[in-house]
Specification:
about 280 residues; alpha+beta; 2 domains; 15-stranded mixed β-sheet; two-stranded antiparallel sheet; about 45% strand; elongated
Amino acid sequence: MINLPMKSFIATLAVTILSSNYLFSQITVTGEVSGPVTEFTATPTPSESINTLEVMSPGTFDVDFSSQGEVPLKFVWKAPAGQCFQVAAPEDFENVYLQFVFELDSMEEFADFPDLGDIGFRKTKGSFPMGASVNASFTEGSTNTLNVMVEARFQPGEVATFESFEITFDVATAYTHNFDNVAVETFSVVGQAYGPNGVTLTDPGAWLKLITAPESRAEALARKASLLRDAKKLKKKFKKAKRKGQIKKARTLKKKFRRAKVKARKVVIPADPEEFTTVTQEFS
């Protein structure tokens, strides 16, 4: 049994060694984004809309793979607590993509990378792509290169929400590079939409953004139950006031009781989101 240290980045980026068991450890790199920053170019055609959500102050990557052995390396792009990503793919655009990017060296070209584990979106609602293209570079030699880019295509007009996106690489024991506090250049989610050639489109605005996370099924059920309890208490008070001949108080309590019942009836109980929507790697 080997006890692995916990490592962390500053700000919103974190690398965590999970589990003290050497054979079943996992390195997780998590980036919490903010934004978006939107850009739009109408001409020359095709029109292009770019929305970017970035991890602010992403910090450094500090992992010595020579001491890890065979280990899963997971990257997670996540929304802040209480929020989720919303993709409302612009209808008039032909090609709409999301890119999930992590880069230590943006000048390095993509190359071979370790075997892939799971790829997908977590806590999802709406329509999602079945596949995604994966490009990555894991350094060989003395350079500190670890770049990941996953590109998933959404259909124009579709709306989807999710809490995070993640991809896992199965890093082999033979990979022994030591990343000693290497600065992270990019940790972002980029939405790109391109219109048809010869057509000038209008700016669709922020079609990739963070929104308040919708109420969960459990939260809605709890809120409805609370309203029904309140209504029951008000009904008892109303009956008591009526028995005592407190006409004015009884009328007020009756109105409050009815309002509470109406509020409870109006609570919409949503379906739970899909816990994890898997996408497969697409090969060019």
